Amino acid sequence: MRNPPLSEPDDHMLAAMFSGRMPIEADKKGFVVIDRDGRYFHYILNHLRDGSVPLPTQQAELEALLVEAKYFLLADLQREVEAKLCECVLTTCAVPMVVSEEHDAKLVQLTGTGLPLVKLSCNRSMNRFSYTATATEAFLRHIELFDKLASKFHGRILYAKDVSGRNGRICTWSFFGKGRFITEVNCASIVYAPDRRQTKIEFPEARLYEENMNMLLYEPGRPDPAETLPRCIESPDPTKR
Prior knowledge:
InterPro entries: BACURD1-3, SKP1/BTB/POZ_sf, T1-type_BTB. By secondary structure, the protein is α/β, with parallel strands linked by helices.
């Protein structure tokens, strides 16, 4: 079976160029000059030959390919790329902002059948005393770790930021699974200087990683650790029979 020429079908830019309907520019060797991004031209040719083509997965590459598809008037390829871009938007990692007690309760309730929840309450303005010299750096490290984990475990753990300022929480990680509170790590404490009290922000990195990894035990479809752990402890050792 012969490959279709570039003039078939005749409703795209290349067909107009090579059928004589549009003037073209050739160099001294007779090669036609097309001033476009060559990195994506193979997608254009493969689509014309096969009718479909495997698309790139990165959003930036898809956006660049969409520009080329529009230039060459390839409506089918344009629709395929736009659909793929919509999928990228739907899989974007979104972090809910908790602004009220009702919103908080709803997120916790969803963990009964959905993803486990890790919530960071980071409210620097709630402090009644001055901060220690290392507090600002510690705040930044908490935020950086939160963003890193939210991106890494997107789709397995739900991460949320509590910006409501309720309960005077300055820097606290809270963990929820199977519809209930599991544990929390409070990273703010009061220290006493000779002339004043100050708020110290700690960054217990190893503890935070451990608690976040433990939340994977509460993924949907897994048995509740609160029910399985006691059975494991009570199970007799078969080697001692």
